[in-house]
Structure formats: structure tokens, C-alpha cells
């Protein structure tokens, strides 16, 4: 960006002006119809009767697949939270499953109203999206194969090792910043990383502790490494909304505060850990 020439900047300014002009022309009414802005309103959701949610269901106990009465279903603590929110709003939930890599984009493109996927509200993402208050903040850990427990026990031990992180996740940055000697392997889905750890093509993978515990519980050859990673507030989970959805955000914050104060989020995590344990991967 810094290399843009004077001419390019001039051009950019023109285009920006033109864009402002046209969006002002078509976006002045408050009816919501033909609205070119991507913001979501409480009203539009209530009118539609559904809350459209984007998620990446590969992240037990927050969102994952399980069989319920012989049918594949997406369940998890995030899904329970979203259902509680939809109940409060008096609407139904419609969950779309996709790669984590495209979850935020789908909100931006208006395909979903909100993204709920254990999403960390980083400063970088806050430039492009609105985020609710945080509802969960687990520490970051490294999962390894038990057979390497005596060697992979320090940050330096991961130098030259293959360490997985989900594509598009904050864990990619954690590997780059905190395990700078390791080789980052970006992988689309969390369960695929678990398979690679079991097979030995990955030496480690970085993920949040609550998620790590769930997958380690289901994979007896894996364990959480005895290595401490830094966690900050940037990593805490929030719901993402299109930029400018202030009214909806305020409403969601009220509901989230209530759920937290009633201990519901922890309850959802506990209950879904049990579901994940009994789920055959
Ligand atoms: N908290 C991390 C992030 O926001 C990882 C989230 C991954 N979520 C998922 N459902 N796979 O980048």
C-alpha cells in the first residue's frame, strides 16, 4: 500500500468520492429495501424470521458434527448460544457450515447475518467487522503425539518442526510469532490436523486449550505439550457482525451478558464436551 504513486492516490480518491456519492444516493432511506450497505439490523432479522449464522463446524466443543437420531447435525457451545440468542429475538437459527477461512467473508458478503465460530476479535479484524463483547477466552496450547513428550517440551524444541494451524486462524500468527523456528503448516480443518498428528506428518498443532482437550480426549495417542504460549485479549471469542450493525450488536451484548452471568456459556461447553466424547470421529 505504501508504494502507491501520486497518480494512483489521486485515482483512488476519485473512485472513493464516486463511491461515496452513489452510496449516499441510494442509501438515504431507512426502509432497508435496496440498501447497499452490508449492515444487519434487528428489524431485518425479525422480518425474515431467521438469524443466518456462518460457522466452521470443526471445532469441538464449540461447533462440530454429530449424529442425532441417525442424522448428521451441527452442535456445540456456540450453537447453543446462538439458539438462545435466536430465542430471545423470537426467530429461528439457520447455520451454514464452511471453511473457517471463509466464515468472516460470508458476513461481509451478506450471506450470513453473523459469524459465530470461536472467532477471536483481533485488532486487525476489528477494522473490518464489528464484534460483540467477548464470551470466552481460553489459553493457547500445542497438541503433540505422546511418543514425543520427552523431546517436544520447550519452545526451542519446535525449531525445524512441522507445526499445524488452521488456515485463516489466529493460530497461524501464533506459530509465526511465538514458534518462529518452526515450519508453519496451514490446514483447512482442525480434524485433518488431528489425523496428521496421529500419522506423524505434523509434529505439533496450535489450538485453544478447550478445543485441544476435547480432541485429546478422543485421541488417546495425543496430549497437550508442556509448553507455555502467550494468550492475550486479542484471542478472546466474540461474535462478528458486518461493520456498522450497532443496534444488533448492542442487543447481542445484552443477551451475551445475561448468558454469562447465568453461567450458561460454561454450561454449554461442559454439555457439548460430553456430546463430543460420545461422538465417533
Ligand atoms: N480463535 C481462532 C480465530 O479466530 C480460531 C477459530 C477457529 N474456529 C473454528 N470454528 N474452526 O482465528
Automatic annotation (TrEMBL):
UniProt cross-references to Pfam families, sorted A to Z: SBP_bac_3 (PF00497)
Domain Ionotropic glutamate receptor C-terminal: 50-270
Keywords associated with the record: Signal
N-terminal signal peptide: 1-18
Keyword RNA-binding attached: no
PROSITE patterns, per database record: PROKAR_LIPOPROTEIN
Keyword Signal: yes
Residues covered by the Solute-binding protein family 3/N-terminal domain: 50-272
Protein name: Transporter substrate-binding domain-containing protein
Native source species: Enterococcus alishanensis
